[in-house]
Amino acid sequence: MSVFSRVLRSGEGKKVKALEAIVPDINALSDVTAALSDEALRAKTVEFRNRLDNGEDLDELLVEAFAVVREAAWRVIGQRHYDVQLMGGMALHLGWVAEMRTGEGKTLVSTLPAYLNGLAGRGVHLCTVNDYLASRDAEWMGQIHRWLGLSVGLVVPDERDRAAKRAAYGADITYGTNNELGFDYLRDNMAMSDDEKAQRGHAFCIVDEVDSILIDEARTPLIISGRLAEAAALYQRFASVVRGLNRELHYEVDEEKSIIAPTEDGVHAVEAALGVDNLYDQVSANLVHQLHAALKAKELYKRDRDYIVVDGEVRIVDEFTGRVLEGRRWSDGIHQAVEAKEGVSVREENQTLATITLQNYFRLYEKLSGMTGTAETEAAELAGIYGLQVVPIPTNRPLIRSDKSDLIFKSEAGKFAAVVDDIVERRDAGQPVLVGTVSVENSERLSRELEKRGVAHEVLNAKQHFREAEVVAQAGRPGAVTVATNMAGRGVDILLGGNPENLAEREARAGGFDTATPEGEAKIAELLVKYEPECSALGEEVRANGGLYVLGTERHESRRIDNQLRGRSGRQGDPGESRFYLSLEDELMRLFASDTMRGVMDRALPEDMPIESKMVTKAIERAQTTVEQKNAEARKNVLKYDEVMNEQRNVIYRRRDGLLADDDLREGVLVALGMVVDGAIEAFCASELPEEWDLDALRVELDSYWPLGATATDDGDLSQEIFWTAIVSARSTDQLYELLTANGMAAYEAREAELGIEAMREVERQVMLRIIDQRWREHLYEMDHLREGIHLRAMGQRDPATEWKREGFELFGQLDDLISRDFLRYVMRIRVTTTEEVTQPTEVIASGPEGPVTGAAAVAAAAGAPAQVEESRPATQATKVNSEWEKTPRNSPCPCGSGRKFKQCHGG
Questions:
Q1: To bridge 33 with a disulfide, which of 71, 335, 679, 683 should be the other Cys (CB 3.0-4.6 Å)?
Q2: How distant is the alpha carbon of residue 522 from its chain centre?
Q3: How far apart are CA 823 and CA 659, in angstroms?
Q4: 722 falls within a domain
Q5: What residues does 177 pair with on adjacent strands?
Q6: CA distance between the termini of the chain
Q7: Angle at Cα 634 formed by Cα 630 and Cα 637, nearest 5°?
Q8: Is the alpha carbon torsion for 54, 56, 57, 58 positive or negative?
Q9: 567-605 pLDDT per residue, tens
Q10: Residues 681 and 820 in one domain
Q11: What is the value of pTM for the model shown?
Q12: Residue 288 main-chain phi, psi, to 5 deg
């Protein structure tokens, strides 16, 4: 029976004791693993994998696997897991959140479940808050995994090579940031072939700083957006082209039903004007869609009836009230087509290409777990949204930090003066001070005050994030003063006395050594002999002076952030102190302080005189609880609305995956054919009386999908006249349906015979992928507009969330219909050529919780300051095949960089 059967049966209060009960089993193997040679210890990985293949499960291997990792860590990086770290590793393996205090070694804890689950070969993702930590952990902890025979990958925004990304995700263990993992998922679902996809599934993810990623950043979606190349120019060009087309000759109009259909002569005229051989070849540009929009703008949308032009803008007029609908725009390219018709500026808008919230991305994983020092206040939300249970792991040594009561001042000026006095006093006593501020502005204000007093200090905020890891590592030296925003330095321990390894690396680099080379490593080892005793002696001096003093200059709206700041002090049983300085002018106090408290302070206290009161502290905690509840409700609301999009996204992405996995689309063509014929008959021939049928409109409608009647029928007759005689002679809609579907099938089979079965399947797949992507982008645009105004439904006594779900479902039904219709139209008419000039998004912007996120910026340090860089992807051009490319395998990516297979691009 699994060693975890007793843990899983335990109640909430007994889980920690149940985990403790398994630790002796692991400790019992310490002598056995210590006695193994390096080769024998490494061979355990092969043994474990063989046992998995023979039917054992991961739970049954846990005790031995943890013992092996513990011994390997000692041999490779000189660190040995404490018993409480073994407990944390077990909690992570079980899919729980391990709440472990700062300094308890969460990074080392992750190696235990990562190794155990990595044995299964399905991929383990270790998610951190920024690129610096992901790179550091992949190198530092990756040493242990590589030594044991597991492969380790790293995904960072700088990496543009999809093959390299694919290799990173193909590793047993992959390190990366939440943003990059999410963006790669979205990029995979924009891929045109299976070879372009990077990720290989979502088996298990360990999220470091789980509260920051799954709570703080949960409300902001990841968005990849872009502008279509020359979209405005295309609208203007089509507006010019359709001005020269004649009604009846080049296109037919049914104003009552708002239908416009170009004739064969019209299509040829447009092809000649655009200089293309076949309008239907340009699937990705969807020139047919542009043509229809331009024709509708010309014939169906009338100036001063449907819209007016004011100050160079097209503004929609409500047909019922005659009022201008401010801020509204027609969808489906109509508004841009009307702007082009009127000769005003065609407004290009960033179009959402793909989007997902972090909440829904992390719910893709079969098993999810996380680590943080502060999760207790968010336990209910983690359980409700992600199904994650929070388990507090005991500290390795007792916590002896002294948390002082808050000091409240009347004014901000009085508060900062007192803060500076306190810092000077602590520095003079040889005590290191970490000052937490809530904003860059406040950190710089305090820095100026310290400079006036001649206090040497370091400032850490988004403007200095590149030096962060180095500065935080030395913030524990005697008399050091470090001013930082509250989130600064997460993931980097503050060691009392300083970090000897960091000092050794800094001196080695200053001496011209490359620390990644054997010579550099040897120099670091030499310098450590000097710095380790020095830092150890300084550490004892700091402990004697009271340890690290954490000073908060303002309460955050979340108790959890305050607790994170306090948690920087008192690691591993070290002494320490913490205190918050507040004023009535602070944001939280300004919003929530009671009139009674203000009155007392206004009457009784001078500017620089604080009060220290448990009543005030409790009032602040109540205010923080109120804000936390409001924010939790907002996140819950975001999730409620995103659930609709998530269901739709899953349907679309499963459909794309099926296409990339070589789904046969022939059946889809037949379904689309039946749907189109059925819809046309219902629109134009719904009457039971044949004389009331509008056969001309029926012909115009269906002729836009395939050349109606111009295809050989079963008896080989090519005459349109005979075909239409049969149509006119039909006496029921069933007869009509059979004649039309038979004609459509004959047209389809003629196309299949012309291209060949294999080529036809590939054409269908590529056409469907592009149509799905284009229509999905348009659908996201529609849903964005629906979301913007859905709250107004409440004015009509209707629930906005219910209306969002209902109307979203209706729009998705229309999307499915449009995809099928576009697919049939292109498959029936497209001609295959060896190259194609593709209009693709030329500017792609990945936007996440921290704003635009891409990878050309240097490695962000431990606070995860946003990298403000845009991704750009130039449009692929049809060019002559380079002679050096001719040896490229047909199924390999094309050397031109288009992302398509060579056989589908320049090797066609």
A1: 71
A2: 41
A3: 13
A4: yes
A5: 128
A6: 58
A7: 135
A8: negative
A9: 888 887 888 899 999 888 887 777 666 566 666 556 656
A10: yes
A11: 0.73
A12: -60, -40
